[in-house]
Amino acid sequence: MSQFDKIISRFNTDSVRWDKYNKDIIPLWVADMDFETPQCVVDAITKRLDHKVFGYTHAPYQLKEEITQYIKDQFDWTIESEWIVFTPSLVSSLYSIVQQLTQADDHVLTLQPVYHHILQAASFSNRDYSAVPLDNYNNRLILSAEGLKHYQKSNTRLLLFCNPHNPGGSVYTKAELSDIAAFCVNNNIVICSDEIHCNMIHDGIQHIPIASLSEEIADQSITLMSLNKVFNIPGLGLAWMICKNKEIRKKIQAQIGTLIPDPQIISYVSTQAALRHGEPWRQELIQYLESNKLMLKNDIKQMQPLQMYTMEASYLAWIDCSQLEIKDPAQLFLDHGLALQPGSMFQQDNHVRINIATPKSVLSEALDRMHAAINSLQD
Hints:
The protein is α/β, with parallel strands linked by helices. It folds into 2 domains: 3-39 and 279-374, Aspartate Aminotransferase, domain 1 (Alpha-Beta Complex), CATH 3.90.1150; 54-276, Type I PLP-dependent aspartate aminotransferase-like (Major domain) (Aspartate Aminotransferase, domain 2), CATH 3.40.640.10.
């Protein structure tokens, strides 16, 4: 029995995901996991809490060096510690980057479908933006240079990118990234790349940070990373931006500690513990997620006419429900006791996103409810 098979009740814990619905609903919508945080992280937090003094703090002096080594080990990318800027969350970084690197009359490019905060970072900042529809290459959702060119304007200054892709699950190849990077370099467009799922890659695929392709691309890129997702500590909050370009880095640092608060003590402690001791747990997690993915994939094949996109990373699967020919597939599943994230959240109707980071027994029951929902349309 895997440690990830353990059932942990999250009701009445102020969980965004579990406390929205009553106990008759299985909520597989928000992107956090139903697994215990690794013991090494819990132990580090407990040790810090035992100190009983929680004054103002700064990042541990070793943390940037540990992250640079982690980036080298995981992605074979050599960065300098001074390129790293800590923030309390990746989402706050997105909003800050749009506001600091573009003017009111600038144009921003992003993707469709994509994580809703990426779209909102542009729209809430009152920037003109275009969401470029992704192409379906062999059941993988991919941004193309041709798509970027079609939606580019003379005042385009920024691309909000996402790799691995949320919600589609694609991990971009080196060739795919090179085409996007070349387009942005040739058109003087800064790339902001959300790569928060980069440490949950499946099936031996290699994640390549787009900024690692060349010095020229790194000089025109901001890479957003965090351990919050992979070690199930999103409620603690620590992310970092990697930015080689000093002038860009100065602009995005301007809001840290003012409009955007500094990260808190426990977030530093938890991230450092995960970096130092969490790798065995992470490897076991990925194996478990891959087996859950196989369970989902096999069941979806039996739920015609649903189609599941190739899931190369994370614990989020993107399901095409358009052939059901119903207005709101998420409501259909909710009526059968299963809460999924509706495609409208990602600007693509007739789709749903399902979170498989849950014990197999829970996922099995959820899939039974999906079957029942599909079968109800045939009654």
